[in-house]
Amino acid sequence: MTGTLPHFDLLLVGGGLSAGLIALALAKHRPKVRVGIIESGEQFGGNHTWSSFRADLSEEGADIAAPLIACSWPHYEVRFPSYRRQLEQGYQSAFSHKLHEALEATLPAHARFLGVPVSAINPNSVTLADQRTITAEAVLDARGQREAPHLELGFQKFVGLEVELAEPHGLTGPIIMDATIDQHDGYRFVYTLPFTPTTALIEDTYYADGPALDRETIVARIHAYAAEQGWRIIRTLRDEDGVLPIAIDGDIRAHLASSPEGIAPVGMAAGLFHPVTGYSFPDAVRLALHVAKLPDLSAVAIDRAVRTYAIETWESRGFYRLLNKMLFRAAYPEERRQILERFYTLNGGLVGRFYAGHSSMLDKMRILTGKPPIPIPRAIRGILKG
């Protein structure tokens, strides 16, 4: 990277999912806007698999996301001690390397900065670690999760192995929740995505009170799970891990106020993820379209619009945080499986709307009625606590 650095209309710091989708949405809807992305790693998107239900995205959103989608299935399965259920709803997975390829194909070389650490960001400029400066009409902060003292969070943590098997696994769709396994560290389930007849991503996942991740132990559990399914692993093709936030309570305005004024925080830093599932892909697509359609792309206008959008989204999801209060505050760790087990007996349309974050009033009433898996007085105490 030599010579004079270009000036941009919009400069994204952090080259992950949210930033990448914003760049792709602007390229499609506002192709004359000069967009640049700075990423400290060697590849945009990092090392991730992002999944979503097809119904989570609008037609316009699906069009933006299409270059990232690597696999899709017409149905998925859940497994609990008392039943197995297949739901006829489309499911899809995006790969981070597909995001990298899409950005390489969309943005000119001078607009892509890889392996470039940043030392300071301001509303109209970014200072690189080597003290050079890139200027822009607006700077967005897309550097991912950060400390969140104003939010009460639980954790969904996982280790995943993409493996090649000696024989076909026999799956025709994902198992997004196999909770028939032994429970450890809160609510535990295994999530399996069958990419080809003999390859799959197997993730061991925990809804836990703390973020600690014993990677070695969890990898051993994945191998044990595969053996129990009759799958013999030949080799590991790729691995990933993560600790995702689960929103329980908090002050979203105070959280956003901790980001410097004039620099819009986007993605996970703006609290844009499903409070219960931790899924961030649909929210990233929706925010990208929202930014691309703003009439004013100045730093002040984008910052105001993104913060307003984040606040409105957070406030619209109070019901999901109420469920998390019962899950994390009221339910004992060994009871959490019972709550999810009951939920997946409900109508498939209700389940789909829940994942999309569009539960109707009737859906909410149905989720909260019936025989509760935990005592009502304890559930009320959990809701009021904090």
Describe the 3D structure.
The protein is α/β, with parallel strands linked by helices. The protein is built from 12 helices and 17 strands. It has helices spanning 17-29, 59-65, 96-106, 215-228, 252-257, 281-292, 299-315, 318-330, 336-343, 348-356, 361-368, 376-384, and strands at residues 8-13, 35-39, 49-53, 69-73, 76-80, 83-87, 91-95, 112-114, 118-122, 125-128, 133-141, 151-165, 175-178, 187-196, 199-208, 233-250, 264-265. Strands 1, 2, 8, 9, 10, 11 and 17 form a 7-stranded mixed sheet that branches. Strands 6-5-13-14-15-12-16 form a 7-stranded mixed sheet. A 3-stranded antiparallel sheet has the order 3-7-4. It is globular, with a radius of gyration of 21 Å.
Compact description:
The chain is an alpha/beta fold and 386 residues long.
Strand content: 25-35%
Rg is 21 Å
Question: Structural class of the secondary structure composition?
Answer: alpha/beta
The biggest beta sheet reads:
7 strands, mixed
Helix content: 25-40%
Oligomeric nature of the chains: single chain
Termini separation comes to 50 Å
Number of helices: 12
What gross morphology would you assign? Answer: globular
Query: What is the helix/strand order?
Result: EHEEHEEEEHEEEEEEEEHEHEHHHHHHH
Mean pLDDT figure: 93
Q: Pick out the low-confidence regions.
A: none
Number-wise, the strands total: 17
